[in-house]
């Protein structure tokens, strides 16, 4: 109510001021500036206050558009030097939280391309001017992703632990992200019996882990257990 009252005061004051000037009355400039400044602050507060409603951005609601909650998220950048799967996944999260319209996704993502990725997009946009977000993701994966996704399952089956469990896990996660749809039990089976060293694999399997994260945690635990005890005294 204070905001509405302040605006009303400013409107009335301005109206009276112009009438007074018309009738030859004089006003101190400081008084005018003070009232208008307070009215302006109150008006801005009212516009961007609780509802955060403006026209032309965010998602539509009753003829206006609502500014999303997460307005300070940084959009990720991509230069074409790494697998785009992670970048595309972060883009999806950003779009979901920012309530980005589907027709704006490609444009927003393209502003954050660098180097070879930017040059690639310039050509892609020329060839496909009506590019959808799904088409963008598909072409991005074809251009910058690993050769053929279906081969990753075969690589997973052949993967063996050579160094530490952490190294094995990192490679396993890179491959499984592109291996297609697998059930939780299939992932666990591939992780334990596919390449873990025999001692660790047996110990982890005895616990019958319910998910891949638990299996990975147990494998790190038994790796530490297998390492020789060093007295720290």
From TrEMBL:
<dbReference type="InterPro" id="IPR005162">
    <property type="entry name" value="Retrotrans_gag_dom"/>
</dbReference>
<protein>
    <recommendedName>
        <fullName>Retrotransposon gag domain-containing protein</fullName>
    </recommendedName>
</protein>
<keyword id="KW-0378">Hydrolase</keyword>
<dbReference type="Pfam" id="PF03732">
    <property type="entry name" value="Retrotrans_gag"/>
</dbReference>
<dbReference type="GO" id="GO:0008296">
    <property type="term" value="F:3'-5'-DNA exonuclease activity"/>
</dbReference>
<feature type="domain" description="Retrotransposon gag">
    <location>
        <begin position="108"/>
        <end position="194"/>
    </location>
</feature>
<comment type="similarity">
    <text>Belongs to the metallo-dependent hydrolases superfamily. TatD-type hydrolase family.</text>
</comment>
<dbReference type="InterPro" id="IPR050891">
    <property type="entry name" value="TatD-type_Hydrolase"/>
</dbReference>
<dbReference type="GO" id="GO:0005829">
    <property type="term" value="C:cytosol"/>
</dbReference>
């Amino acid at each position: 109510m204070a905001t509405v009252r302040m605006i009303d005061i400013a409107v009335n004051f301005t109206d009276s001021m112009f009438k007074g000037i018309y009738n030859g009355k004089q006003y101190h400039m400081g008084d005018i500036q003070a009232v208008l400044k307070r009215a302006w602050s109150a008006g801005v507060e009212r516009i961007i206050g609780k509802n955060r409603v403006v026209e032309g951005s965010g998602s539509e609601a009753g003829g206006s558009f609502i500014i999303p909650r997460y307005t300070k998220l940084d959009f990720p950048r991509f230069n074409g030097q790494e697998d785009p799967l992670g970048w595309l996944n972060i883009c999806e999260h950003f779009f979901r939280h920012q309530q980005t319209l589907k027709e704006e996704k490609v444009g927003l993502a393209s502003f954050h391309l660098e180097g070879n990725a930017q040059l690639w997009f310039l050509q892609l946009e020329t060839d496909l001017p009506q590019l959808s977000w799904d088409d963008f993701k598909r072409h991005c994966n074809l251009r910058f992703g690993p050769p053929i996704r279906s081969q990753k399952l075969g690589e997973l089956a052949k993967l063996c632990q050579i160094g530490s469990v952490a190294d094995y896990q990192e490679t396993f996660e890179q491959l499984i992200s592109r291996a297609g749809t697998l059930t939780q039990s299939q992932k666990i089976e591939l992780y334990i019996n596919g390449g873990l060293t025999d001692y660790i694999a047996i110990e982890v399997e005895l616990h019958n882990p319910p998910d891949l994260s638990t299996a990975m945690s147990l494998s790190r635990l038994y790796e530490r257990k297998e390492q020789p005890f060093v007295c720290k005294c």
